[in-house]
Amino acid sequence: MQLKTVETQLKELFPHSQQVYGYIFQMNRVMADPIQVFVDRWPEFNVILCKPPYEKEGDLFKDTCVFTKDEASFRNILGENNIIDWTKFLCLGTSLCYEEMVMAVASERKVPVNKVSVCHMMMLQDPSRLPPVESAIESMISSLDESHTDLVNKTWKFGNTENSFQMIRNMIRHYPSCCVLDAESQQPIAWVLTYPSCAMGMLYTLQEHRGQGLAKALVSSMSRRLYSQGFPVYCFVEEENILSYNLYTNLGFTEDPQYRAAWFDFNSL
Prior knowledge:
Elements: H1 2-11, H2 18-27, E1 36-39, E2 47-51, E3 64-68, H3 71-78, E4 90-95, H4 99-109, E5 113-123, H5 135-138, E6 141-142, H6 149-155, H7 162-174, E7 178-181, E8 188-194, E9 200-205, H8 214-228, E10 234-238, H9 242-250, E11 261-266
Parallel strand pairs: 3-4
Antiparallel strand pairs: 1-2, 2-3, 4-11, 5-10, 5-11, 6-7, 7-8, 8-9
């Protein structure tokens, strides 16, 4: 019941709360790996932190995500010794506007930190304007299964490790995915997945199949599917990825130009 209340409250605080909202949304609907949720106080919270328990192989690769209404509350929850284990690897996702504070906390803790990614957060409000998927491509669209984990892992920018393999397998097992299958081999030639935060990601087309509109078709198909099931439809695009930014923009995704999401690695693996 409390998580349902959190979900309702966070929906009123978009776009800054979008990622944490996505985690809570999934937790209220999908029996997947557990996520621990911490707030500074209840029910009138100022900060909410979602983190995976580190219990098995691959858990260290999962993100910890924070939404906060003010910087002081964010700093305070990072200082709680029973929440963050500063001796282990941590990937923290939050708003870029808190970069200076995050770096200061790392310095105080004498923990090495690296800003690994800064992204536009692209949201789709109205999927009815998405272009139709060509029938020839639509007939080839399917979902990924666990046998495809290695392929996705080897092509993901941050993948190709055992930890990322475990994380991707979990995503394929529990969350929506979409792929285009080769007509002859019936193996994926393009795909997009959904993160535990509901964000679409890992969009990829094999080199030899690019230029055929497969990414456009996958994003359109996946967006309609997510929207029809009540999911928030959004994604993160790295600032330097102009091709993907243009793809999502042309499909009707929009952003708050004042907001950027950022990820920070502590104690890099």
